[in-house]
Design a protein that fits this description.
The chain is an alpha/beta fold. The protein contains 13 helices and twelve strands. Strand 10 and strand 11 form a beta hairpin. Helix 2 crosses helix 3. The structure holds 2-acetamido-2-deoxy-beta-D-glucopyranose (4 copies). The site of one 2-acetamido-2-deoxy-beta-D-glucopyranose (NAG) has 4 residues, from loops. The site of one 2-acetamido-2-deoxy-beta-D-glucopyranose has 4 residues, from loops.
Length: about 450
C-alpha cells in the first residue's frame, strides 16, 4: 500500500504525460450488471428448456502483450488473485480428500509488468465478474429447477482452452453457479474442466485446424477494399498514435491491438494513460480495430468465414443439441470459457453481433427449448447476449424454430472439414501472416 501511495505522489510531480482516471469506465471493462430475459408466453406452445450452451470471454485481465506500452508507464499491478491446485490421478472420482494444495506465487519484480502479476492473467476484478455471471446463471437455470443445485458430472460440462485466465474464469463462474456445498465427509468436490492441446483447439478460429482460414484472412488484407481503407484511415491513424505515444518503433495494426490493450487495461484499473491520448483518439482506435476484425469475420462472407473458423465450435454445440433431441445425450449445461475472438466471431456467425468489441466477461447463451402444444412437440433455439434475447436475423422469430435454425446452422458449420479447409489459392499463402494470426500465443 505504502509503495502505491509513494508512486502516486511521485507521479503527480514527475509524470507530465499522465492524466487522472476517467470517471466512467469504457464498456470494454465489462458489464456492471446483467438481467436475464425470461421466456415469454409464445403462441406456438409451452416452452421448456432442454439444454444450454454458454460462451464467455474471460474476465478482466492484465495486459497480454510483452512489449512496453509507452515511456514512463506508471502502472503497478497488484495480483490479489492466485491459483492453487494439486496433481490428481483418477479421472472418475468426483470427490477427494485434500490435505494440501500448491499455490502459484508470481515473484514480485520478476515479471514483465510492474508488480506481481503474470502477463494476461485474470485479475480479482475479472474473477468477481465471472462469479457474477455464475450467480446470474444460477438464478436463470438452478432457481428455476432446470439444473440441480449441485454440480453433476452427468449434467454439467465445463470447457476452456489451456490458458490460465480462461481456466480461472471457468472456475469463478463455477463457484457462482454451483457454490460448493459444505462438506460433512471432509472431502472436496472435484469439478472437471475439459481442455485440449492448444494447437488444434477450436474455441477460437484456428488456422492450424483449418488452413483455409488463413487464406481468407490473407485475401482480405490483400483486397482493394482493405488497401483503400488502409490508405485513407489506418495509415494516418497509426502515424497519429505513434506520435501521440512517442513510440520509437513503426506501429502496425498488430501494434495497434497491443496499444489498445495497454490503454484498456490501464483505464479499466484506473491507471494513468498519456494525456496525449484523447477520448476522440481512443474512440477512433476502437473503431479501427472493430472495423478490421468484423471485416475479416465477414470475408468472403459471414457464413464462409464461420465455416473455416468458429463453425467448428458451433458444430459441436449443434451435435449436442441433436443428441438431446434424439434422446441420446443428457448433459444440460455446457460452458465454453474463451476469448474476445470466441465471443465476437460466434455472435457474428449468427449475424447477430453489434459490431462492438466484446467486453471482459461478456456472455452468450444458446438455449435449446422444447415446444409443446396440443398437437405437436417441436424444438426451438434462443440466443441471448448479456442476458438479452437476440433474434437471429435469418429466423422469422425468437426463439428460432428448429427448422429455421437447422437450415441456417448448416451454412455456418463445416460440412466436410477436409475439403472446406483445403487452401485453394496457394500463391496468397506466401508472405507475412495476417495481423491477428501473427500474434501467435499472445491471445487477447
Ligand atoms: C519520461 O520521464 C523522463 C524522466 O522523468 C523524462 O525525461 C521523459 O521526457 C519522459 N518521457 C515522456 C515520453 O514523457
Ligand atoms: C448437494 O451436495 C451436498 C453435499 O454433497 C448434499 O448434502 C446435498 O444433499 C446435495 N444437494 C442436492 C440437491 O443434491
Ligand atoms: C402446434 O405447433 C405446430 C408446429 O409448431 C403448429 O403448426 C401448430 O399450429 C400448433 N398448434 C396449435 C394448436 O397451436
Ligand atoms: C444479416 O442480417 C441483416 C439484418 O440484420 C440482413 O440485412 C443481412 O442480409 C444479413 N446478412 C447475412 C450475410 O446473412
Amino acid at each position: 500500500m505504502s509503495v502505491k501511495v509513494f508512486l502516486a505522489i511521485c507521479c503527480s510531480f514527475f509524470c507530465s504525460v499522465a492524466v487522472s482516471v476517467r470517471a466512467d469506465l469504457p464498456e470494454y471493462c465489462g458489464p456492471q450488471n446483467y438481467a436475464y430475459t425470461p421466456l415469454r408466453k409464445d403462441p406456438r406452445g409451452e416452452f421448456t428448456l432442454k439444454q444450454v450452451h454458454v460462451v464467455i470471454r474471460h474476465g478482466d485481465r492484465t495486459r497480454a502483450g510483452a512489449s512496453p506500452c509507452w515511456d514512463n508507464d506508471t502502472a503497478e499491478w497488484d495480483c490479489l488473485l492466485s491459483s492453487a491446485s494439486i496433481p490428481t490421478i483418477k479421472h472418475d472420482t468426483h470427490d477427494i480428500e485434500v490435505a494440501r494444495v500448491y499455490r502459484d506465487a508470481y515473484m514480485a519484480g520478476r515479471n514483465i509488468i510492474h508488480g506481481d502479476c503474470g502477463l494476461g492473467h485474470l485479475t480479482f476484478k475479472g474473477y468477481k465478474q465471472e462469479e457474477m455471471n455464475g450467480e446470474n446463471l444460477r438464478k436463470a437455470y438452478v432457481d428455476t429447477g432446470f439444473l440441480s443445485s449441485n454440480y453433476s458430472v452427468h449434467e454439467d460440462f465445463f470447457r476452456t482452452d489451456d490458458m490460465s485466465r480462461t481456466r480461472q474464469s471457468a472456475q469463478a463462474l463455477g463457484i457462482g453457479l454451483f457454490p460448493p456445498p459444505s462438506s460433512s465427509s471432509g472431502k472436496a468436490q472435484v469439478v472437471d474442466i475439459h481442455v485440449m492441446d492448444k494447437l488444434y483447439d477450436d474455441i477460437e478460429p484456428n488456422a492450424n485446424l483449418c488452413p483455409k482460414l488463413e487464406q481468407y484472412e490473407k485475401e482480405f488484407f490483400a483486397s482493394d477494399m482493405w488497401k483503400k481503407h488502409y490508405a485513407e484511415t489506418t495509415a494516418p491513424l497509426l502515424a497519429e498514435v505513434q506520435k501521440a505515444l512517442g513510440l520509437k518503433y513503426t506501429l502496425t495494426i498488430d501494434g495497434l491491438l497491443h496499444v489498445n490493450d495497454c490503454l484498456m487495461t490501464h483505464l479499466c484499473h484506473g491507471f494513468a494513460i498519456p494525456s496525449s491520448v484523447t477520448q476522440d483518439l481512443l474512440d477512433r482506435i476502437a473503431t479501427e480495430l472493430t472495423y478490421t476484425s468484423y471485416s475479416t469475420f465477414s470475408y468472403p462472407s459471414i457464413q464462409d468465414y464461420s465455416r473455416v473458423g468458429i463453425g467448428f465450435l458451433i458444430a459441436e454445440m449443434w451435435q449436442a443439441m441433436q443428441d438431446v433431441i434424439a434422446g441420446e445425450r443428457f448433459e444440460k449445461f455446457y460452458l465454453y470459457s474463451g476469448h474476445d475472438h470466441t465471443v465476437m466471431p460466434f455472435l457474428h456467425a449468427f449475424n447477430a453481433s453489434d459490431y462492438k468489441w466484446s467486453p471482459y466477461a461478456s456472455m452468450v447463451q444458446l438455449e435449446l427449448l422444447q415446444v409443446t402444444n396440443a398437437t405437436n412437440v417441436d424444438y426451438a433455439v434462443r440466443l441471448l447476449y448479456h442476458g438479452q434475447e437476440r433474434r437471429i436475423p435469418y429466423c422469422s422469430a425468437s426463439p428460432c424454430s428448429l427448422a429455421e435454425f437447422s437450415t441456417y446452422v448448416k451454412t455456418i458449420i463445416p460440412q466436410d472439414p477436409v475439403a472446406d479447409c483445403q487452401v485453394t489459392k496457394p500463391e496468397i499463402m506466401i508472405g507475412p501472416r495476417p495481423p491477428r494470426l501473427g500474434r501467435n500465443q499472445v491471445l487477447f
